[in-house]
Design brief:
mainly alpha, 2 strands
Amino acid sequence: MLLRYLSSILVSEVWTDEDDVKAEISEVKGEIISFGSETIKTISLVVYPTIDGCNKQRLACIYGLLSDCYLRLGESKKSSSTAHPNSPNLSALDVARLYKVFEQECQRVSFIKNLDFKNVAGLDGLNLLSFKNEVFSHVNESSLEALAKMVQTLASIYADSLPEGLIVWQDVYKHYTMSLLTTLESRVRKECDVQNAERFQEFMSQLEQTYDFCRTYMRLLSPSDSLDIMKRYFTVIIPLHSSHEIIPDNSTWQDCVIVLLNFWLKLTEEMQEIALDESSVGTLRFDPEFLSSCLKVFMRMVMEDSVSPSQAWGTVIGYASSGLIGDFSVEIPIFCRAMLYSGCGFGAISEVFLESMSICAISSASTAKNESLDLPHLYVNMLELILRNLVGGSHEHQNLYHLLSSLSKLEGQMENLQTVRHVVWERMAQFSDNLELPSHVRVYVLEIMQFITGRSIKGFSTELNSNLLPWEGWDGLLSTGKKSNPSANQGSPDHTDNSSRFTSTLVALRSSQLASAISPSIAITSDDLLNAETAVSCFLKLCESSSTEPHFDALIAILEEWEGFFVTAKDEVDTTEATETGNDWNNDDWDEGWESFQEVEALEKEKPENSNHVHPLHVCWMEIFKKLITLSKFKDVLRLIDCSLSKSYGILLDEDDARSLSHTVLEKDSFMALKMVLLLPYEAIQLQCLNVVEDELKQGGISGVLGRDHEVLMLVLSSGVISNIITKPSFGTTFSYLCYVVGNFSRQSQEAQLSTITNKGANERVNIEKDVLLLFIRIMFPCFISELVKTDQQILAGFLITKFMHTNPSLSLINTTESSLSRYLERQLHALQQGDYFSLEEISSCEMFRNTVSRLTIKLGDEIRSALPLLSSNAR
């Protein structure tokens, strides 16, 4: 009856006041305990399963009764095996002490409302499966101390090693401090706007407050755990990493970065104190001493504006993402790499590195490691990592641009800078020489090396121009040879070889890529480009394998790749020879013949803009033209020759090849042959073709197509052969043809003006015709008129002008022709001088003869100025 009464009280929901329960039981407690085993069975099988684990006061009462029962059994020397079947190895006194501990700790944490003590401990001991989760899920500021003490007491039950799943009291503090950091990190991701400096300052304030609050708890942990948590205070800013590029470089953000760096310094100083603890000596991999030295130098440079806020932000993000893992030999390079990848220059990087290494040299950590860690090794190691990624197919080149651009300025210690530049250059040279690498990778690296020197035969890509900086005062081509006096090597054959080595390799690789369109097995090497002769031999072999238009396009692209290389190489040799022989100012006879110097200078100025030197690869161009003509691709030939007019590489064909090619084209199309030779500076061949055209015009007359061919008129005017056509009677028919073309376009221009007034709509065909008419009105017609005046054809010129200007026939009795002619030319000259003319972009239909039009436009001013004095002063 008594045990049933006890059970009813303990499981009753009516008895809610624990003091009343204890008072009720106290009256019969002695009898209850005297029943010993029966009481234990009743509580274990009936009462305990019914009690809610969150009712910790009732559980404490039950644990107390069980403890007293086992204590009585132990004192009476009776067996407890039937009373506690789940713990047969424990004596009754041991079980009594266990339940007394449970009672005590259950009461300690009874104020934690939702904590289920059954998940902490059961009748047969600690509940290891749910112990940790139950404790961690209820850790907060108010419960922290109680839970830590509870865990410490419960863990002390085990005299030997702790069972798996059981935490220690330090874990409670660790979990609490980490949870605060995790909450702060989540808030950063959701709420912090790094574009807002004020919000960032608020975040830093919260971060420091959280750290200050947790410092006491962190000091209770093991040194390694303390350092791990403190590292999290460095990395808490990583969620903001995507914003480092948009931080403005102003004083407000400079202050923000300085606040962050000051907080980091505070962390490192306290980390040093932990690291110096006797219990941590020799056990910690991370040494904060060298981070502290890096940060002090770095913050000073931020304050001195040597490092911008955006660079500083990129550095701390980069370091927090990959640092805090090792000793000085690891941390200093990681910090410097973070500086490099954020865009810092060599001066700042070298200063941080050298000052940090100087501290390392005098510290106890100075070992053989720092003897092999210097600036050249630092840069080469960073470069190696980047090059490995490049070989692995990485398309992220920004880090390589940062590394090379950091060396662009003459800053820091010059000796260190030049040494680092040299080893970086040498490593890239070795890398580019690796034949096992894909050709596109080698081409890319060689293009970068060319950009660094500021020299290129074809200009640089937009990507390089936007992301990379050339090295000031650097001739890397010299550094590939012996480290001797640069000035002594400048004109030497060795320097010339070094200058062309990288370029020839780059051109060969690019050419192989282009030649793959002809055959994937074709490989062009630098030996094929030793000189023009070997290049021609190689090109002729390529031509033998080419038979389709895509093949010809590839051949043209290869030639355009080569021509800059050979012309540049020739110019360098000529410049070297001129330097060696042309500056002998110590010769006493230098002033003899000085009087004739001005005459020579005048003759030089009179030379045409593109002197008649032949392209070094003219044999190759001849092969290209023959193949295009075989396919009747005459316009492609004209376009290529016109394109060459803007370059200084020379004439694409020598006179013999031009004559041979003209004969071939004359057999197919005499006017195309004439256009081709008019683009070349060989007058004898031009006159030969004019004779053929003259005969053809006499026999066949002027067809409708010929009457609308403005290209013939434009090329005749541009080449200068117009004077021969006007003055020589043998070309009378051709002259009549040109006059017909001029009259035809004059009429079309008048009709176009009328059409513009009456009908503003125009289709594509009309737009093209308008382009041609604009070219005729602005350039060709005034040029033709000027040529007529210069060749004493003023009457014809005046007649054309009066027709063009719609002079009233009633004024024909008055001599207005010459005055109209004069006024017209003066008006055209004024428009030229005022820049009141079109740009080439306005005339899309003349794309094929862009350079010819450009030259003719320049020539027009001289033509008008030469013609005006020939008109009478009265007319003007």
